[in-house]
Amino acid sequence: EVQLVESGGGLVQPGGSLRLSCAAFGFTFSSSAMGWFRQAPGKEREFVGGISWSGGSTNYADSVKGRFTISRDKAKNTVYLQMDSLKPEDTAVYYCNTPLLLRDNYWGRGTQVTVSS
């Protein structure tokens, strides 16, 4: 069964850090590019950043560039999102995905990140 399970969210103060995880099941993770997305209340889901299947290439939305870092562990079928210098505007539900599942409009449950003092 195909599944994406996001975890690691929580409440953090501005300037703080969190590391999100996304465990992948049911498809060939090792050969799949992965991406992180987020959806804030009342807004459309937006792209945060992505990583190539090899892990050798990453790209980020301008709003998070220099603050967020994506990595992957093929042995654990897991992709990570390290978030530093968090801002209140980073508050959102965060999701991971891959092109294969995006085509079918499959999304996991996401993990809530709230940045507030």
Describe this structure in words.
The chain is mainly beta and 117 residues long. It has one helix and ten strands; from the N terminus they run βββββββββαβ. The mean pLDDT is 96.
In short:
The protein has one helix spanning 99-102, and strands spanning 3-7, 10-12, 18-25, 34-39, 46-51, 58-60, 68-73, 78-83, 92-97, 111-115. With 117 residues, the chain is mainly β.
Secondary-structure blueprint:
Elements: E1 3-7, E2 10-12, E3 18-25, E4 34-39, E5 46-51, E6 58-60, E7 68-73, E8 78-83, E9 92-97, H1 99-102, E10 111-115
Parallel strand pairs: 2-10
Antiparallel strand pairs: 1-3, 3-8, 4-5, 4-9, 5-6, 7-8, 9-10
Counting DSSP H or I runs of 4 or more residues, the number of helices is 1
Q: H/E element string?
A: EEEEEEEEEHE
* Morphology: globular
Biggest β-sheet, characterized?
Answer: 6 strands, mixed
What is the radius of gyration computed over CA atoms, rounded to a whole number of angstroms?
13 Å
Q: Which percent range describes the beta-strand content?
A: over 45%
What is the tally of beta strands?
10
Average pLDDT score = 96
Distance between the first and last residues' Cα: 40 Å
In quaternary terms, these chains amount to single chain
Strand order of the largest sheet: 2-10-9-4-5-6
Q: List segments where confidence is low: pLDDT < 50 over at least 5 consecutive residues.
A: none
What structural class results from the helix and strand content?
A: mainly beta
- The percent range for helix content is under 10%
